Structure formats: C-alpha cells, structure tokens
Amino acid sequence: MKDGIAIIGVGQTEFKEQTSETITEIVYQAVQRALRDARLSIGDIDHVVTASVDLWDGLVASNIAITEVVGAVMKPEVRVASDGLLACYHAYMMLLTGLYNNILVVAHCKGSMGNHYTFSNWSFDPIYQQKLGLDFLSAAALQANWCMRRYGITPEQCAQVVVMSRSNGEKNPRALGSPKVTVDDVLQSPLLAYPIKSLDVAPTCDGACAMVLSSSVEKAGPSAKPVWIKGVGACLDAHYLGDRDLSRPESLISSGKKAYKMAGIRYPKKEIDLVELSEFFSYQELLWLEGLGLCDSSKVSETLHHGVICEDGKPSVNPSGGVLSGAPYIVAGLSRLAEVALQLRGEAGNCQVSEAKTALAHGTAGPAGQDHCVFIVSA
Amino acid sequence: MPRRVAIIGTGQTKYSKERNDVNQMELVYKATTKALDDAELKVSDLDAIVLGNMELFEGRALPEMWCGEGAGGYLKSVTKIATGGTSGSSAAIAGFYQVASGVFDIVVVVGWEKHSEGHTQTAMAMVDPLWDRHVASGAVGNFALSISQLMAGRGITEEQAAKVTVKARRNACRNPYAHLQMPDITVEEVLSSRMLAHPVRLLDMCPQSDGACAIIYASEERARTACRRPAWVKAVATRHEQPYLGDIENRLIIMRTLRAAAKEAYRQAGISQPLRDLNVAEIYEPVSYAELAWYEALGFCDEGEAGKLIDEGITEMGGQLPVNPSGGVLCSNPVGASGVIRVAEAAIQIMGKGEERQVPGVKTALAHGYGVYAWADVMILSSELG
Amino acid sequence: MNELINIEIPMALRWQFGTGRHFSRFIQTLRNEGKILGIRCPQCQRVYIPPRLICGNCYREMAEWVDVKDTGVIQGYTVYYHPILDPVTGEPRPIPYGMALIKLDGADTTINHYLSETDLAKLRIGLKVRAVWRSQRRGFISDISHFEVIQ
C-alpha cells in the first residue's frame, strides 16, 4: 500500500427512465465494465461492498439478488444500505486495514419500480413526522424555503442551475439524456411543493454503478490509471427537521472539513478544480456548494450572470450534468465519484473539464440532506 | 499489518417479546449507553457508529436517520449495514474494519430489532417475487427441509436436537438479558411441544425478540489504557452464497460457506484444533438442529460426530467447549442484534464479565453469524494480543 | 406514570419487478408449452433451475438451455402443521401440507415445492415424484399445483 488507495476502474450502465432489465442484469453490466476498466478479473477482487435499500428494491435482504453477479459466492460481501458513496467510504476503510488488495463497490437502484416519495416517507420517525406525510420532497421544499430566506436565493437562480445542468448533461454520454430546458420552462413547470417545481427535481431513473478500489496499485502496471483518494468524510445530522437549521447543512460542513483536513486542503476554492454534487433538487446545488465552502450563495446572481456558479468558475460544478440531469437514487453519490475519476483521467468525453487535478465528489442520503459523504481525489 | 483492535465494552437491553416501554431509537440508546458505561467512555469519545438492522421488518427505511442519534450518531460518521440474519455479525465485522483502518479510534456497533413493531412475516414474504414467493416455505420450512437431509445423512436425532434446546434455555437462566429462560425444561417437554414443520417443534425454534446490543471497539493504544482485559480481535471471515435455497447442495450437512469462513478464521488466529484451542463459542442457531450442523462445519468434531458432542455434554457449561452460555439465538432473537450479541457475549467471556454465565479461564472465543440460507460470518477474539 | 400507547400506521406499497431475459423465457415456455427450462453452466456443467444470467460458482455466463422433466426425486422433505402466510394470496395456507426439495430429472439444483403426501411414514429422501399441473398456466412455478409420490 505504498502510495495509498486508488480508484482503478469504474463502470456504469446507461441510466434510463425505465429499464426492462432486472437488477441482476444491470448490476452485472456495471461490474463487467468496471472490471474491464480496471483490467482485472473477478478473481482479483478480495471483497465486495454493495449498496441497495430493501424498500426501493421491494426485496428483503436485497443484496441476495446480486450475490452471483458481483462475485460474492464463497467470497466476502457486505451491504451498506444507503447511498453508494457511503458504501465506498467503508470500502476505502477496509482497504486501509491492509487486509484486502482490491475491493469492488457496487450500487444499484431502479427508481421506476415504485414510488420514490412514498418509500421516503418510511424513513421518517413513525411517531411525529411520518404521519404528517413528510417525504423527501416536502422536506426539501422546507429546506429550499429556508435557503431562499437566508441567502436570498431565488427560484430564477435555481432555474438557471437546472438550465446549466441540462446543458452540461447533454454533452455527457453517461447522463440520462434529459432534454435541455430554458429558465421559463422551469418556472412554468408544475408546482410540486413550494418553491419546488417539477423541473427543479432530479428525474428518477434506473441504473447501476460499480467501482474497483485498490491498495496495491503499484502491482497493477503502467496501464492502470489510478485516481488517488486523498480525503474522505461522512457525517449524519439530527433527524427531526425542527432540530436543524435547514439552511445550514451541518453534516455536510463537517464531512467537508474532515475530507479537506485529510487531504491537506486549506483553501478549497483554490485547490479544488472540479466538483460533482448529489443535488436531488436545484436549490441543493447552491446549498451544498455553500456548505462545502466553495461558493457564496449571496453572490450567486452575479456569477450565474456569467454562466458559472462559483466565483471565476472555479471549481467547475457538475460538468456531468449532475444528479439533476438524472442519476438513480442510491447510485447517485457513487456515480459522482465515477464521473470525477473519469474527468481526472481525461476520459470524460464531451463534458471534459481541462486540466483538472483535484476533484471533490459528494453523496447524500435521507431527508433534506441529513447524511452526507465527501471524497477528495486527485490524479 | 492491520492495526490491532479490541472490544472494550458491551451493552445489551433485556430481550423480550415486546418492549413497549421504548421506541426503536430509545432501544438503541439504552444499549449504547450501557456499552459506554461498560467501557467507561462518554458519547463524545465515539468517533463513528456502525448500525445493523433489518428495517423492513418494522416497516422502516433508512433507519439510521431516525435511530442514529440513539447510538451517538449526531454529527458523526454512521454506516448502516443490512445483510439479513447476518446483519449483526456483518456490522460487528464492519466496525472492526473501521478501527483497524486507522481512520477511527473508537467505534460503536449497535444492532437492534423490534419485531413487535411492524409485521415481520410480511417482510419475510418479500422474497424473490418470481420464484421464492410462489413456493414460500418460510424460515421454519426452509430449515425443516434441510434438516431432513441432516438427519438422513448425519444420523442426527430429534432427541439430540432437543438436548440443544434444553442446554440453551437452561443456560439462558444465567443470562439476565435473555428473552426465553426455562429452568425446568426437559427433553420430553421439547419433544412433546407442538410440531411446526416436521421435525421442527415449537420449542426447537428461536423466538422473535425486541432488543438492542452494542459493542465498542478501540484501537490498540486506546484499548490498553481504557480496559483492564480487552477482547482482541484475532480473526474475521465472511462468505456469501448463491441466491436460491435449491442451489445449495445438502445445505446443513455441507454448509460450504461456514466451513470456508471457519477455516480462514482459524488460519488467521493460528487455531488448528478448535475443540482444544477455543474456550467458548457463541454460535447463531435459529433452530436447535442448526447448532449440531454448525458443530461440524466449524470443525468442532468430525463428520457425523456432532450428535456425540451434545450427547456427551462436551458443549454444555462445564464441558470441554461450552457453546452459547448466553442461551444463543434460541433464547433471544432480535434479528439485527443477534449477530452483535454473539460477538458481545464472546467478548464478555474474554473480559471476564460473564458473571453467572462466565466460563472459567477464557482466553479464546469464537463468535458466528448466520443468515439468508447460508451466509456465514466468523470472528475470533482473544485475551492476548500476540 | 403515563399510560404506554401504541400507534398504528397501515402502509401499502406497489412495486413493478422486471423479469429479465432468462426468467422471461422460462415464464413464456412454461406458460405456452408447459415445459420447464433449466440452464447449463459451460464450465461446471451444472444445470440450474431457476435459469439465470451467470453461474455464481464459475462466474460464467450461461446460454445453454436444457429441457427439464416434470418428474424428479425427493432430496429433502417436511410436513407443515403450522400455517405460514402465503405471500401470493396473503392468506395462511391450509394445514397440513407437505413440501419437498426436488431434484427434477435433468436439473442439478433442487426446487422446493408442495407435496400432496402428508403422511410422514410414507416420506423419505429418494422417493420419485411427479408434478400435478393446474388447468391454467401463467408461467410461474406455481403452475404446478404440487408434486405427488409415484412409487
């Protein structure tokens, strides 16, 4: 483990609004692509870490559906039942122990299988919040409101974020393929929960993403294109929405700080070249950037005027089109890390950002961003 | 070489059919607080939390959101593990890795389940919709089918299985946390209890319990200063299997996953003769017959000799290798916690905190987790670092 | 001391499950032709029911479809005296009923299915059985109502 832990292979399926393929089939595809990218065979994998949530899969012990295709038969596997980036954090720690060389991380979700918001209602405590009918949409709406008050963020600014995301997404071969929109399209789209309109929301879709992490990169040979993991942080906020200042994403701030510290980053805005966020709602793009110390939300009207979000366009935000362009729940965070890895390898395709050396990938889970995970990686 | 890690404290709630005095978050809180007290730590000493729970049974999703705070998770890294019956043992192993990685020094692992809430049967029925649901046999049925093979192939008898139940339910009387405690239970009573699915009788089956169990891992440096007699982690191993019951040949006889996991764990811990080298074992037996199958798969005996172990009292308290002084899963079964309880009880034995259920002179203990037809986790703890 | 209360929250959910290439073929063949299909691993030669994408032991894709008979041999058995919830109907199954692990002729994995025989004295591993089909087939393994002992 001379140089550290690196991502040596990434693979994902095409994200689709609704695929007729089964979870087993899409996970197999993602795994095959990641293994091929890593130039490894399944026999080289020492341990598998999967990410899926039973309720979304309609299956108890949902990783049972994929043990064969992830190569977990007569091998060790563990499932982290949350966003794939959290599973990746656990895999990273497992590699640091020195007990494993190559770990396969796989996340999957078919959003088309059921009603995402109904499922999300089950995550609220059954005593106070669940019976109110709270779900991730209403929680997000409350948070969006609070942000508008605190930072002066407007629906127009959020709409501009959507426009930019879709425009970027159009250039990304791996994105869902949601059509470009205008600010007016967003503002005229049906109001779901004030101030969130339907085009402010990431479209649900189906897909899987797999990644190979390695602690023995020096053995892999010159063709390996490692993307080094420099810092990671994860953090869970309070559960009751009323216990939190929803406009101040404490757990994201904390995750970011932990990751920056581990990576030796003192001036994130200067040192991070690109960031891929998990923004399930347009306002979250601004809030997450604020929480990561990458953008001053009160100045966003100026920067958006120049077609960027962060001052001077640094860091680049979501060149992939982000989750707003469509990434499956549970897969979202892991696929952000995959995007960032491809960017640092210079393999992102038409959405390539030039000369990116250090990048940040972000994942989130739970209501109004209760849980966050941040990865800092470099080429 | 990974960092050396020890368990320095455990905490358990009383397991029972219905804990309506607490909600789930409070259940988690109770176990966590007890573990912190046992380890003489404050919640601010915790660096990270690992949770094990099968939330579908309670009609929940992402239970770490609501219950994470109960485990001290506020503004900490919280990892939620779910792997069926092995959720607890997977979580216990995951917590070990997180400290062994060097990223965290003190990690609490909490497993819990509140079967009295929600509808366990409904969640258990949410198996593969294209196949398993159409010929559902349920947990009892699945075991019954495999047990018929075990009896035919290994000569295990109903009496021997009943002896396992008697051992468990009597041992549990010395465990203040156990759900089912039956001081006067006899083999005859087991053999005359209601038949569920032949040959599995009511008294052969584990209960469904409410409860939580927490264990606290510490890095070597912290363990040395914090704990008089830490339980050092010497080995961990995991194996998963193919997805359909019918894929697994002669499941209880062969149990290839457990054999392989045990072999790897023994290799890591330098154990060549388990019966001699282990002083106590906490194994995951959802049904009495399974314990006999695990004896063989864990290498406690030769092929076909498992019945002998129970007949000759080798696995009784006072025998050469006491198995499940706690009463095991047969006496307390909050699914998400059950695997953690095995590790906690093994650690308790090493730490000398077993009180009435303490086996004298424990240096090496084995903990085992089982779930989902044939998934296997094995952990070995020792009183010695070296 | 306040009274402890429980609150009830009824929840109902719907899912749409994919069947995939392998199960789709299995279902259609079963429904349209009344034939059971298995799939063989090119490496270990094991014939799997239900058919699936890869052999988990060898990590090899499988494409060789095999006709499997509706007769077989009991590899494990039990008789239920305690009703469990049938996930398809939501009702408890009437007791007693038999179940077995059956190795169908032509397959290497067993399937678990219902048995008409409920007399334990008449059941043992190694008995031959035959499927009893329902009059209407939908393509699920429950198109076979149960198996009956034939010797």
Number of strands of chain C: 10
Mean pLDDT metric of chain C: 93
Uncertain segments of chain B: none
Largest sheet of chain B: 9 strands, mixed
Shape descriptor of chain C reads globular
Instruction: Using the CA coordinates, give the radius of gyration of chain B.
Output: 19 Å
Question: Looking across the biggest beta sheet of chain C, what order are the strands in?
Answer: 8-7-6-9-10
Rg of chain C, rounded, reads 19 Å
Beta-strand proportion of chain B: 15-25%
The best one-word shape of chain B is globular
Helix content of chain C: under 10%
Overall number of strands of chain B: 11
Secondary-structure-derived class of chain C: mainly beta
How far apart, in Å, are the first and last alpha carbons of chain B?
Answer: 13 Å
Q: How do the helices and strands follow one another from N- to C-terminus of chain C?
A: HEEEEEEEEEE
Largest sheet of chain C: 5 strands, antiparallel
CATH class of the largest domain in chain B: Alpha Beta
Features:
heterotrimer; B: 386 residues; alpha/beta; Peroxisomal Thiolase, Chain A, domain 1; 2 domains; 9-stranded mixed beta sheet; two-stranded antiparallel ribbon; 15 helices; 11 strands; C: 151 residues; mainly beta; 5-stranded antiparallel beta sheet; 3-stranded antiparallel beta sheet; globular
Plain-language structure description:
The complex is a heterotrimer of chains A (379), B (386) and C (151). Chain A has 379 residues and is an alpha/beta fold. Helix content of chain A is 33%, strand content 18%. Chain A has helices at 23-38, 54-57, 84-96, 116-121, 136-151, 155-171, 183-188, 250-263, 268-271, 282-291, 300-305, 332-344, and strands spanning 6-12, 47-51, 77-80, 102-110, 191-193, 196-197, 206-214, 227-236, 274-276, 316-317, 358-365, 371-378. In chain A, α3 (84-96) packs across α12 (332-344) and α6 (155-171) crosses α10 (282-291). Chain B has 2 domains: 5-120 and 209-226, Peroxisomal Thiolase, Chain A, domain 1 (3-Layer(aba) Sandwich); 132-206 and 237-382, Thiolase/Chalcone synthase (Peroxisomal Thiolase, Chain A, domain 1). In chain B, 37% of the residues lie in helices and 18% in strands. Chain B has 15 helices and 11 strands. In chain B, α3 packs across α15 (335-351) and α6 (158-171) packs across α12. The radius of gyration of chain B is 19 Å and the shape is globular. Chain C is mainly β. Chain C has one domain (20-149). Chain C is built from 1 helix and 10 strands. Chain C has a 5-stranded antiparallel beta sheet with strand order 8-7-6-9-10, with no helix packed on it. A 3-stranded antiparallel beta sheet of chain C has the order 2-1-5, covered by helices on one side. The model of chain C has no long low-confidence stretch (mean pLDDT 93). The interface between A and B is large, with 59 and 58 residues.
